[in-house]
Design a protein that fits this description.
Blueprint: E1 3-4, H1 5-8, E2 14-23, E3 26-29, E4 31-32, E5 46-50, E6 55-58, E7 60-63, E8 69-72, E9 85-90, H2 92-111, E10 116-121, E11 126-130, H3 139-151, E12 156-162, H4 163-168, E13 186-192, E14 196-199, E15 214-221, E16 227-233
């Protein structure tokens, strides 16, 4: 299992580590700051810096087998052997943007009182799908409520809940399409002040005020049970 530095500190930009497995196009590390694709959040990009100063570009990060994290490099790039020491460094500007969007989507969960049927974020926008009647989604009202919550500058805290506690409180799981991983004894949680509390494995800001301004740019139907609200954040 890869040690997930980003779970303890979403603001960690780099770490010293060791290669545990490698093959053309793939590098696995003992510990990493790279978040793997999951929960609607894209995997991190960045570089692996070897002791001789050479750099390998990480083009994507995904989940592997047995809780490993796979750093994808070009298929024709030189592959560092297991045991190689190096420094893993993420593209921080991109990651921070994704953290802003991910934290804002938690606020959107609180603003729209309906089950979440899906969601995704990118570097320029993000969306959630809700099982709700279309007429109940008013862009101006959602936008005003979002920005009011952002302005409250509430703390965002990481915690954990036991599998048994989660099973006893199924309402904490707000995303119908994705269930939190069980079997490890506990599940990671994110609490946004008194606004939102739910299981989540993603990376987040320390406070909501860091999100900036949010705009609702589109609301449209994606099917009978999927009404999509798309947001864009200011620079």
């Amino acid at each position: 299992m890869t040690d997930r530095v980003f779970h303890a500190d979403s603001y960690a930009r780099q770490c010293d580590t060791v290669v545990t497995r490698s093959e053309p196009g793939i590098v696995e590390l003992e510990r990493t700051v790279f978040y793997p694709t999951g929960g609607g959040q894209p995997g991190d990009r960045g570089v692996l810096i070897l002791e001789d100063g050479s750099r390998l570009t990480v083009i994507d990060t995904i989940k592997g087998e047995d809780e490993a994290i796979v750093h994808r490099i070009a298929d024709d790039a030189p592959v560092p052997a297991p045991g190689t020491r190096l420094q893993a460094e993420i593209d921080w500007e991109r990651r921070h943007t994704l953290m802003r969007y991910h934290t804002c989507l938690h606020l959107l969960c609180a603003v729209v009182d309906a089950p979440v049927t899906g969601g995704r974020m990118a570097e320029d926008k993000a969306h959630l799908d809700f099982d709700i009647d279309m007429e109940k989604l008013v862009a101006a009202d959602i936008e005003a409520a979002l920005n009011a919550l952002i302005a409250r500058d509430q703390p965002v805290e990481t915690g954990a809940i036991s599998d048994a506690e989660l099973d006893a409180n199924p309402g904490l799981v707000k995303t119908m399409s994705v269930q939190p991983p069980r079997g490890q004894g506990s599940v990671r949680t994110i609490r946004v002040g008194d606004i939102d509390y739910q299981p989540c494995g993603g990376t987040h800001l320390r406070r909501t005020g860091e999100i900036g301004t949010a705009s609702v740019v589109r609301i449209r139907s994606e099917g009978k049970r999927n009404k999509r609200v798309t947001i864009v954040l200011g620079d």
